[in-house]
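dumping this here before i forget
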Amino acid sequence: MPGTEHSSRLSVSLTELNTGSDAPEILPEGQEWPDRRALIESVWRDFIGVLDEPGTGDLTVREKSREDGEAFERWSVQIDGGDIGPIPAHLLVPDGALTAATGTIPAPAMIACHPTNPDGQAAITTESGEGRRPYGLELARRGYVVIAPDCLSAGERIYDGHKAYRTSPFYREHPDRTIVARNISDHQSALNALCQLPFVDADRIGAIGHSLGGYNAYFLAGLDPRVRAVVSSCGFGPFRHDPRPGRWGRRDWYTHLPAITDELEQGRVPFDFGQIAALVAPRPFFHYFGQTDAIFPHWQAISEALQGIRQLYDSLGHVQRFEMLMGGGSHDFPAEIRQLSYQFLDHWLDASDPSGASASVGDG
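structure:
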């Protein structure tokens, strides 16, 4: 399992974290962001463990279809995932992108990371899935090429004899790995797939997700600069004032980072998630969270941590690239918030003018 060799450089007593007046610092005074960022990434990589080499991203198309009235094709594909094997996904290809393949204007693209729904990819790419939040489907309707892979333990990747999101078989097979690192590698395989499609502009790829998908989106972007903009809905929950910090460690069902349990048993945490989310900076970053979210109920601490990230963007001269919205609602990605997030993506990925944003948003 991942150790804590580097954790002392960011770790803090849980008691201190919860009783102190301020959230953990992202960029302490007098430090430069490249150096601080390198430290945070080092600690993060130590805790997520080995990040396996992603697959080539080569696609095997199983089926192509088109729903009545839709201006895109739905491709059911298998992504080459390297040693882990093929990764099932939906690839939604707008008609405009297919036309562009023979011209000079490739389309923007999106990795759509699904929430904790047993349907996986289908939850966000079909109306019959999680119909309240079909952000993959809606982005395809806006002209984005969208790839939505199944995470391991969801959709077509549920372990035989187990319910969705039971990760114990993964840890039995890979005791030195974490599911967080597995998800990052698998999403990098999906990135590889997008980057080699002739109708995709590799300089205009974003990531979007809700809940599990929300943090998978910024976990990916934090370690892969090819993601040029990120949208996270209800996917951010700092350790500070979290009533259930053990959610990130060992559990009976979905275990993210087993070593977190060891840290908590010692009364400390190795980092706070504001520091991890800040790895995206200074690329465009959109956050939404609700005050009555039963999953992440500590909205005051969420707001405080996100304000810390906003201050980082401000210090880097890119405060306009960071957007945080707080609603009064539950653990959801409401339609009106989705529309605002799409407008954010349109702006920063220059969806209306393919000649624009790639050079300006790719730093960091």
